[in-house]
Amino acid sequence: MRTTDETKIQRIKDAVIDLVYTDGLSNLTTAKIAKQAGVSPATIYLHYKDKTDLLSRVYEEVKTELHVGLDTIISPQRPIVEQIRDVVQFTINQYLQKPKKANFMNVMWSNAEQLDEHAIDYTHSMKESLVDLYEQIWHDPNYMDVSVDVLDSLFNVPANLIARTGTISTVDAEDISIMINKAILV
């Protein structure tokens, strides 16, 4: 791919993330994306089949980026309660450092029907450190055997709080990690 194509593709992706952040998903159109990216609408369709394809590919890329480093805090040698605390803090840090991308993930997570099958499969098949933590939780007799969806929802609490309030205190972060741990203890 030529450099100008890569630049245009990146501008399109950035426009999607920015527009979802400022205008929301329901107001997102390919015309708005093209205008924000400084490209013609036809340029979008050179690289993506449709809006679902575009959202899905951006989702996969952002998900991968936001999970970089997560594997360094998940370790079966550490107590689960510490790992939960560190995952909560990791989520908070990512959200505060990359608010537009974290918001995009939060919005897409809440609107999974906007994603194609490949993006959904990508989410489920991606070797995530969280799956390692979830498996530790499932195999520990001190914890309830709850579904992935329940665990995902619990670990999404910090992102939801930041999305609602714009910030999070150290006390709230600690409270969230304690709450998650207590919610799944037997």
From TrEMBL:
Xref: InterPro entries: Homeodomain-like_sf, HTH-type_Tx_Regulator, HTH_TetR
Domain of life of the organism encoding this protein: Bacteria
Domain HTH tetR-type: 6-66
Keywords assigned: DNA-binding
DNA-binding span(s): 29-48
Pfam families: TetR_N (PF00440)
Protein name per the record: TetR/AcrR family transcriptional regulator
Organism: Agrilactobacillus yilanensis
